[in-house]
Amino acid sequence: MSRIIRTSVLAVFGVIWLLPVYLFVVNASKSPLTYTSKEAWVPTDFALFANMGEALQLSGLSASVASTVIYSVVSPLIAVLVGAAAGFAIVALRLRHGFAWFVVIFGGTVFPLQMVILPLFDGYSRVGLFDTQLGMIIVYTAISVPFSAFVMRNFFTGIAHNVFEASVLDGATTWRIFRTVYLPMASSALVAVFILQATFIWNDLLLGLTLSQSDSVRPIVTTLSGMQSTYGGAQLSTVLAAGVLVSLPTVVLFLLTQKFFARGLALGQY
Amino acid sequence: MSALAKRTTPYLWSARGFIAPGVIIVAVLLYLPLLWTTYLSFTAYDGLGDPQWVGLANYAEMFDDPDFLGSLGNTLLWVVGTLVIPVGLGLALALLTWNLPGGVWLRLPFLIPYAISGIGVGLIWSFILSSNGALDQALGFFGVDETPRWLVDAPLNTVVMIVAASWQGIGVNALLFTIGLNSIPKEPLEAARLDGATGGRLFGSILWPMLRPLTTVVIGLSIVASLKTFDIVLGMTKGGPGRASETLALTMYKETFVNSQYGLGSAIAVFLTVVTMVASILYLRQQLSKKNEI
């Protein structure tokens, strides 16, 4: 009996929770020609893909999409490797004062980004990194390294040290042990960190707002924010379609991987 | 001696080489800017010429500024609101889906919003809450014609933005609490059930104490995240009307990049950082001392 009540309560609230998503998609699907703000709840036509195509032409969204794909692949990739290297140095190579060095790296994530954006803007302008893809890749890498080092250090702590010693007896160099023994063993953790950081970068607003201005460098969420204040009225359905386009990849990725993360979190791996 | 010998490594240079990239990236791109912001907070600077040392003048100006104080008030409202709603409802949701067949599927609708960016959430909710928008139309359907101006009247606009943020954040809190519930050992639960404990008693005497460490983490994360609230406010009201719904993170951004008040902006950033640190430390200390009493 209580099982039925629980299921019903959850189903009702689940539907309520999905209403904003319903409104989002329904209104993003309305053709700008017939769009009216008066009938938000009623689906009229299905022009979602046409609207997305239209949105890609506005505000240089298509150029933003291309750049953002680069940022959210390259930066987390570098960051997981840098983080894994740090974890390897501390755990496998038993770096002196290893924990202190770990705190130094992890400490980079404990304060708000507001604390670093002005000097980054100033410094980037001086050295020519402002409004460049390279500059964005570097800053996204930097903010991803602390969490990556945190997870990878934890993961490597779970690997018996005699794995390392056995490899040394086989005559392998440390670089070779890192590349052929530790990295492959950590592949699940590397993938998890990569996905989390890629999602974070994909959804970033503040760094894009501060460190870029041209269409081809601006990340998509920043571009979407600009579109929202520029276009209204009949073009609102196009802006909503841009919002769906920007949100879809992370929602799909998150839903596909949430079980995997729940299991990892439960095992205390991440 | 042996302990010391164990800690020294024959791979000194190799280890330094492996940790160097991480340390260098974090030092150059995060710590150096952090120090520079701290320095700038004691100066008058607009990006041109050199920063002029003014001591604590920026901090004094900050606390004399009604806009800053309003922003501080809004931020506190965010901290309290996102503690009560997403953490409380997240726990309720986790308890409802716990051990329920199909619970994984029933949780999905709450997880979707989490993957949407703050600007995306802001876009959806400003569409819903606009005047004569989806919510007003729905209320009109039920005969309510006089509706408040959701995004205009303060502090209502901050409250509805907290609701939007809760819509986004509840699922992940539920996921964390579910993980906590699943990791509770089965024996004490069975024993309590055999003793006839159900519902409220089971929760109060077994589940809540056992969830304590995880609750600490969830609440801590929630406080830190709400102090940094920026994306949703920019996406829904841009801090307006005027500056009525700004949060500290947004005020810092506007003073710095819109008004070119680098010194004042830096002082707000330092203040925000200090508040975040103090809140985390106080909270953790309080939780740890509670633990010791048991």
UniProtKB/TrEMBL annotation, chain A:
ABC transmembrane type-1 domain boundaries: 65-257
Location(s), subcellular: Cell membrane
Keyword Nucleotide-binding among record annotations: no
BP terms from Gene Ontology: transmembrane transport
Gene3D superfamilies from the UniProt entry: MetI-like (1.10.3720.10)
Keyword Zinc recorded: no
Cellular component GO terms held in the UniProt record: plasma membrane
Membrane topology note: Multi-pass membrane protein
CDD domains for this protein: TM_PBP2
Predominant place of localization: membrane
Annotated keywords: Cell membrane, Membrane, Transmembrane, Transmembrane helix, Transport
InterPro entries named among the record's database cross-references: MetI-like, MetI-like_sf
Transmembrane segments: 7-25, 69-92, 99-121, 133-152, 181-202, 234-256
Coiled coil (residue ranges): none
Source organism, top-level taxon: Bacteria
Family assignment from sequence similarity: Belongs to the binding-protein-dependent transport system permease family.
Protein name per its UniProtKB record: Carbohydrate ABC transporter permease
Organism name: Cryobacterium tepidiphilum
Automatic annotation (TrEMBL), chain B:
Transmembrane stretches, start-end: 12-32, 76-96, 108-128, 159-181, 202-227, 262-284
BP-aspect Gene Ontology terms: transmembrane transport
Superkingdom of this protein's organism: Bacteria
Location of this chain's protein in the cell: Cell membrane
Membrane topology: Multi-pass membrane protein
Cited CDD domains: TM_PBP2
Domain annotation ABC transmembrane type-1: ranges: 72-283
Cellular component terms per the entry's GO annotation: plasma membrane
Similarity remark: Belongs to the binding-protein-dependent transport system permease family.
The protein's name: Sugar ABC transporter permease
Organism classification: Bacteria, Bacillati, Actinomycetota, Actinomycetes, Micrococcales
